[in-house]
Specification:
- Helix content is 46%, strand content 20%.
- By secondary structure, it is α/β, with parallel strands linked by helices.
- The strands form two sheets. Strands 2-7-1-8-9 form a five-stranded parallel beta sheet, sandwiched between helices. A four-stranded mixed beta sheet has the order 4-3-6-5.
- Helix 1 crosses helix 7.
- The longest helix has 17 residues.
- It is globular.
- It binds adenosine-5'-diphosphate and guanosine-5'-monophosphate.
- Guanosine-5'-monophosphate (5GP) binds next to strand 5, strand 6 and helix 4.
Amino acid sequence: MNNKGILTILSGFSGVGKGTIVKEIMAKYDNYALSVSATTRSPRPGEEDGTSYFFKSKEEFEEMINDNKLLEYANYVGNYYGTPREYVENKLNEGKDVILEIEIQGARQVKKLMPEAISVFVMPPDAKTLKDRLIGRGTESLEVINKRLSRAVTESEGIEEYDFILVNDDLSESVERLNSIIMSSHNHSYRNKEFIDSIREDVSVFSEGE
Ligand code: ADP
Ligand code: 5GP
């Protein structure tokens, strides 16, 4: 079987619970690696540089773009966000299943570069729950919340571009469902071409010997 890790793109409306799901899946299973993004947005209380994000100035971020250090990047509500390339490539080669928690413009770039990546869009059980979670998190001003909600309207037009949707109602169920999506992707025939060919060849050698 192919030992390379699976790359999973996880997107969804701000406040839907992506970060929470990713934290839980990382704590529960040891086959995952979470890509830490670079951003120019300011840290929220409790967020640490190098763990939540690599917090960068605009100039530093633009240098990373110019040095081709990013797998993808995008502008989201006034700030740059991007995925450092090297970590993702190394972890996939080590056989880790890498999760990118990124928005839709970045998701499109990654799908183009790595079509074998799987993409999952996290949805709220209903719209009111989304607003309640965003307000309940208490990390943004009402003005930023409204900007993020209007961004959610634009993003909702791209949901069908994703391979799967994941409705985040009960947290532990969402974690289990995401894990099963990723685990079953390991068994895709297109991901295991070399293995299939080698077995096919061995079987045909057997049959010739009979
Ligand atoms: P995102 O990363 O998508 O912006 P967060 O993970 O920060 O969202 O979650 C937003 C808020 O919703 C947080 O306060 C989190 O605790 C809460 N939350 C996440 N998932 C659930 C869930 N399944 N049920 C109830 N609350 C949730
Ligand atoms: P937040 O400011 O809430 O942490 O993130 C805002 C949005 O940026 C979310 O939709 C999140 O998924 C997205 N995001 C985080 N990191 C990256 C990244 O590296 N690249 C892209 N394209 N989007 C990202």
